Every structure is written in structure tokens, then in C-alpha cells.
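re the bet — no i am not wrong, look at it urself. input seq straight from the record:
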Amino acid sequence: MKAGVLAVFLGGVVVGAAGLHSLERIWVARASWALPEAAPAAPPTPRVTKDDQYAFAAELYRVERLSSDDAAEQMERVRMVWMNRRYTWEVLRITPLCRPPGPCMVQPFDHARSGRPILQGWLPRLELNQNAHAALARACDGVDACVFTFEGTLASLALSPDQATSLGFSDVVIHRGRPVREGEAWLRTAR
């Protein structure tokens, strides 16, 4: 190979080589620069599952019938399975417990829908931002007893054989609202 001279201009730095066939005669001027740091990736949004509050209540009912030692272990299993997943639930807005700013407590059960009495007394807590509160106001405009559908991530869940169940949703999106229909029993009455 014939020896030659090569010079390249790179942003004010000359890189040269003479006799490319000989490694000992290569000169390289090193330029350094910093690449901008990439923004941290947002965690992936979990897919919406088909399970609803009635499936959750049925699973709790099954676990609560176990002995207390088995129930505590199974409740932890239930918590791990249900946590950090996205759900779409239809619930009743309890107006005094659902005013901006802040969270919204909802009634999760139409008692007429179940074949047996639903004994769970928990009120899910929806963490609503200003936009979600506005969407809920639009969905329930003019409806006192408003049943609405939301999608959210189950972000907190406390299960214990000795304590009341507590659960909360984050990243809530309001889909639609409607009045309570005839035959529905969102609020149980004393018998």
C-alpha cells in the first residue's frame, strides 16, 4: 500500500495520518463532548384488567372464610395480585365525600347486582387531580345520585383479618356518568 497523508477537520481539531499501513505513525487528536442525559423513562402504564370490584369482593369473601392463620397469608397473596394493576370500575359518587380539591370517596357496590349480601363496607379513595374533578363534574352534571365509570391504578391496599379493608386508586381517568337506574341498590337500606 502506498504511503500517503490524510488530514480531516473535525470541529477545530485536525486529525492526521501518514502511512496508514503503520499503526505507530497514526496521530489522533482527541475531542471530547458530553451527550445530554436522557430523561428517566416513565414506568409503563399497566394494562387494564377485566376484574372489577365484585370479583375483588368475591375473592375477599373466600379468604375471610379461612382460618385466621390461613386468611392472613391469603390476604397478603390477594394484595400482591391486585396491587399496582389498572381497573375499570363503576361506582356511586357520594357527593359530600367527593368535592374538589382532594380525594373522592365512592360507594363501590350495587347491592342488587350480587346474589348475596355484600358485607364489605370499604369506600375506595380516588386520588383526583383538578382535571379529573372537572371531568367528574361534567360526567355527573345535574345528577344527584351519579353512578360513574373510572379507570385507575390500585395504588394502596390494606388487607387484614383484624382491620377494615382500605384501598385507593391513583392516575384516575373519569369515563362517563349516569343517574342511578330503577332496581339498583347502591345504598343499602336497613331491613
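see?? Residues 1-29 form one domain. told u. also The first strand starts at residue 5 and ends at 10. so pay up
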